[in-house]
Design brief:
The relative contact order is 0.13. This protein is of the alpha/beta class and about 700 residues long.
Length: about 700
């Protein structure tokens, strides 16, 4: 081998060695880098796991405290919960609100101390949020409640360790809505098909002149506003009387809906115990009820009433005398009564003032439904009545006779009792101009010898002013009461001012401030629809419901919207058999019974901020078994109210009809004014319902 060849081989070997060395160096660097990254990655994973552990620690150590400070996830009454309710009722925006300050987040200082013991770089922070809340009732044609929302209650825990961060969220669905469902909250009484047979279905009561029941069924008296004797939320008498002076007072009281065919309600006699006719009486003295005389508007009088007429007086056996008389006209409005101390039967027709035709058509019985309450000031229930409802009452026509000559005037006015000239009811076929108009008691009092034809040219003029039974839209009777509060000296009939006209199921508006809750023709089915949207729990049988929601003291702690399926159609008895009466409600809510009858034996509210609603769409029977007060709203548009015990309901009643016959015991319905959506008191019935189960998110 030559020297040249030897040098060439050495160079090649050195080059190979350099290449191998370079490769080894690169491999070493790569391996070192890989090992370093693996080491770093392992630390990151470990650090992340520690951060996750810290985040879990935050959740586990604070969740009990947070839920305790909120309350029992329901309408607990804790300070924090009251602040939460204030947020939902008064906040214009609910976009991701942190509520640590409301709950008092002392846990974060404790978590900071704990994490520092783990490592100087470690930290734990737990925050509580209201997130993603949206309105759930937005259609004013069904029900629009701007404060009814749902969203999430979020507990968010962030753990950090040596630069690694982990986040854990626990979310629970939260619903906020009012426990008074929909349209029914504005109505005292809502009958979905009130007349099954004929328009006189409810004219059943036999009563005397004083409004005392003589026999037969008892009345159902309805108060559409607070009164001083309310079992809860009694009204202040001064405020009530002040409110009654307003002509639009009906806007602020419970309404009545009597749906179906025409319904005639014969108004009860007198202004005493039953008080249906109170708006035709002077009630300034609660112990004395004086009939009010209504002047006939001048434009309704014939021409003969505008100048004196010279006529012979009725004392013609003493002397023949012609003397001038002036005539006016008025009505005394009274109502239906069947008996009195003077007559055992059909007392309202004595004296033949009203015709036999009217007697046969209207009968003498009064209505079992008393929509205007009683006669005492502060109790009178002027209200809006919706539907084809008519009132019928007796109109006694008085011919006012005023002698112009002083001597005759003195004789005339010294009579005791005063002369009464009633224009009796005469059918057209019996009318003629030669009929006499005399003193009601056929006395000779110095009055005129008067024939009908001297004042009236034809029957139509006389019929317009004679005694008869008047039938008119029920709410127009309301207008005569307004004259009392306007202190009209001369009240006329019909009244000049129309405060409220007949509402034949027209469009209604329920609103407060800028929120329109409802606009349209009220349909009770909308209230049921709202209830179904709000359901939070479902049970199978009534027994399951009581087992779940009765506490150890036998009190109802509901705080929920619950459906009872009840496919076996067991009777839903409230309170259940074997439980104390009345049922005490500590936490209100809504019960929707799918099937079966309902029996009520007394319900009492432990707190005025609570309200209980029982609803059903079933074609069933609702029976009141006890005289105890039932503080509950009943929504049952296809149910019949059956006679049972005399009852008192504090709330609203919706049914298909009331089965009234001679056994009906009657009672009282008192509208709960606080549940009226047009009043701020409505807000106290909102509840916050938080789901029982959590959802987890890890980030």
């Amino acid at each position: 081998m030559t020297l040249k060849q030897c040098n060439h081989n050495r160079g090649f070997t050195i080059m190979i060695a350099l290449i191998i060395g370079t490769v080894l160096l690169v491999l070493s660097v790569v391996l070192y880098t890989f090992v370093s990254r693996q080491y770093t990655g392992m630390h990151i994973i470990v650090n992340g796991e520690i951060a996750h552990f810290l985040a879990e620690t935050g959740i586990n150590t604070t969740i009990g405290t947070i839920r305790e400070r909120i309350g029992n996830n329901l309408n607990s009454g804790t300070k924090a919960f009251e602040k939460l309710k204030d947020i939902f009722l008064n906040s214009k925006s609910l976009d991701n609100i942190c509520i640590n300050d409301i709950l008092g987040d002392s846990w974060n200082s404790e978590l900071k101390k704990f994490s520092s013991e783990v490592d100087k770089t470690a930290s734990i922070e737990v925050n509580v949020y209201l997130k993603d809340f949206k309105p759930i009732e937005t259609n004013p044609g069904v029900w629009c409640d701007s404060k009814a929302v749902n969203g999430w209650l979020v507990i968010e825990s962030v753990g950090e360790y040596k630069g690694s961060e982990r986040k854990i969220k626990i979310k629970r669905a939260m619903n906020v809505f009012n426990m008074v469902p929909g349209v029914m909250s504005k109505f005292t009484l809502y009958l979905n098909n009130c007349t099954k047979k004929n328009e006189n279905d409810y004219n059943l009561i036999r009563n005397d002149y004083k409004g005392m029941i003589t026999d037969g069924p008892q009345p159902l008296i309805i108060y559409n506003h607070a009164t001083p004797e309310y079992p809860v939320e009694p009204g202040n008498i001064a405020d009530i009387l002040r409110e009654e002076k307003e002509s639009d007072v009906w806007k602020h009281r419970g309404w009545i809906w009597l749906k179906g065919n025409k319904t005639r309600l014969n108004l009860c006699s007198g202004a005493g115990d039953l008080g249906e006719i109170f708006h035709f009486y002077d009630v300034s003295n609660p112990n004395v009820f004086t009939p009010v005389r209504f002047a006939t508007p001048v434009q309704s009088l014939p021409d003969s009433f505008f100048k004196p007429i010279t006529l012979p007086w009725d004392k013609s056996n003493e002397s023949v005398k012609n003397t001038p008389y002036r005539f006016w006209h008025s009505f005394i409005l009274d109502s239906f009564h069947d008996r009195s101390k003077r007559m055992q039967n059909e007392a309202m027709y004595e004296g033949d003032v009203l015709s036999a035709k009217e007697r046969n058509y209207y009968g003498a019985k009064s209505s079992v439904l008393h929509l205007f309450g009683d006669a005492r000031q502060g109790y009178q229930s002027r209200t809006r009545v919706i539907g084809p409802v008519y009132s019928a009452f007796v109109r006694f026509a008085n011919l006012e006779v005023k002698p112009e000559e002083a001597e005759v005037k003195e004789i005339f006015e010294n009579q005791d009792p005063k002369p009464i000239y009633l224009l009796r009811s005469i059918p057209e076929e019996s009318y003629n101009n030669s009929l006499d108009i005399k003193d009601f008691m056929w006395r000779r009092v110095g009055g005129p010898l008067l024939k009908i034809g001297m004042l009236f040219k034809r029957y139509e003029e006389y019929a317009n002013l004679m005694s008869c039974i008047v039938e008119m839209p029920y709410v127009e009777s309301y207008n005569t009461m307004q004259d009392v509060y306007d202190k009209k000296v001369n009240r006329t009939f019909p009244t000049i001012k129309k405060v409220l006209n007949m509402d034949n199921e027209g469009e209604s508006l329920i609103s407060r401030d800028n929120n329109v809750f409802y606009k349209g023709k009220p349909a009770i089915e909308d209230s049921i629809k709202i209830i179904r949207q709000r359901v939070q729990d479902v049970v199978t049988r009534p027994a399951d419901f009581w087992k779940k929601y009765l506490n150890e003291n036998g009190e109802l702690e509901l705080n929920n919207v619950v459906v009872i399926e009840n496919t076996a159609r067991e009777e839903f008895i409230i309170p259940p058999v074997g439980s104390p009466q009345p049922l005490v409600v500590k936490g209100g809510g809504i019960i929707l019974l799918e099937k079966g009858n309902i029996s009520l034996r007394g319900i009492s509210l432990a707190d005025t901020s609570e309200i209980l609603t029982v609803a059903t769409e079933d074609d069933c029977r609702i029976r009141f078994e006890s005289t105890m007060t039932n503080m509950v709203d009943i929504i049952a548009p296809n149910a019949e109210i059956d006679y049972g015990s005399k009852f008192e309901l504090f709330g609203s009643l919706c049914a298909k009809t009331i089965y009234a016959d001679h056994r009906f015991q009657g009672g009282v319905i008192r509208y709960r004014a606080a549940q009226d959506p047009t009043k701020s008191s409505y807000d106290k019935f909102y509840k916050i319902l938080i789901a029982k189960k959590d959802s987890y998110w890890n980030e």
